[in-house]
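WP5 quarterly update. Target: Amine oxidase. Source organism: Nostoc piscinale CENA21. Length: 494 aa.
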Amino acid sequence: MVVVGAGWAGLGATYHLAKQGYNVTLLEAGPYPGGLVAGWKTPGGKSVEAGIHGFWYPYRNIFALINELDINPFTTWTRSAQYSPAGLEVESPIFQELPQLPAPLGTFLYTYFQRLPLIDRLSALPLLYAVVDFDNSDAAWRRYDSVTARELFKDFGVSARLYRDAFEPMLLVGLFAPGEQCSAAATLGMLYYFILAHQPNFDVVWCRGTVGEKIFRPWVEKIEKAGGKVLAKHRVTDLIIDDQNRATGVVCGDQVFNADAVVFAVGVTGMKKIVSSSPSLQSREEFRNLNNLGAIDVLATRLWFDRKIDIPRPSNACFGFDVTTGWTFFDLNALHDEYHNEPGTVIEADFYHANQFLGLSDEEIIPIVQNYLATCVPAFKQAKVIDSSVIRLPNAVTHFAPGSYRYMLPARTSFANVFMSGDWIINRHGSWSQEKAYVTGLEAANFVMSYLGNGQPAEILPVHEDEVHIKIGRSLNENVRNLSKSILPNFWLP
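Structure tokens (predicted):
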């Protein structure tokens, strides 16, 4: 058994298969398990990583894994804020600590907007129809995927200011692109999962160090104790396919790893690279069509300042500094164990849809970042940068562009024993981001065991059920839609 890619999906599949007694080998192209989210040390021994990732309240399966691994990698629940060049725009509380209201009323009432008028916020109410109508089914994805998020908000009467100051900033740091470049289907799925489904869903914890050190390292140790092999610096270039439509081996340059089944667990960009070198995969239209999918550039910076700076909240999102770029900054003195006693201030600032920055030198980027930080927290203006790390990540995260759904792959492929996993795979669990990647890894492991006829399937915790009023709304909507189909033409293009 071979798993390709050592991120959340690949480690998840490998761990469960190893626990079930399978002889499983995990191949990772990079120098260490974890891919882009693992983190590493600079030559000076300081921890850096390719952007910081939050762990949200509905990440039920990841939190269950953490309990199983018996580790304690997370902070407590943290508050967050949002800034524009005008200053502080939004403050978010810890929603689970407040009286629970029917969704999305709690989110609406408890989120504190500094400048956005109530009349603009109320203009989002008609959008609730689309939220109810989008149920993560194949039909719903096909209805909304060819529409841009910008069109969606405009068609449902969202005010220009609400879109500019609230929804597009969410897209820039959630789907990593401006609204005209985001699928409406992906937008609805993300908004519902993280913000609208249940009041606490926006609550978040953070890793108390790099994910590689705090989570992936002890996880890999567990995998190896269970009998799994984890091999870094092994870039897959092809599959060996027999005349029964089955993969019998995975090719890494001059090496061949025999396989009864294969799980791919890499991002869109990595998968496209594998397909480009693989005649076996290029022979299938589903894999050739992956070239229609895209990815987004990310810039991750870490700055060490010469003094302590009072930062009101540890995690912050920012918009309006560049037209098509969102960014976040984090107070690592508050979040990461190794910086708690740092004499100065350590900041992680990550930029998404950052293509215009990647060609700049470090010496050009660092003053830009410091100036942006000083716009949000003026004390940064007088501080001096004494050390820094700049990591350029071209095509690093999935781009859920309008029309992309038709090219995404399901877990099962046209090869009998080749399965897919990752945050860009079609699945019906309803989760997003790291949680979705991990869940699809478990699903792929279950497909492998079903195919081979041995092993206990992994338990996958479902997303929390819709609240009663949402269930009623979806039921009524489905009945009306079914009735209209029987008497009216289909006005949705395929």
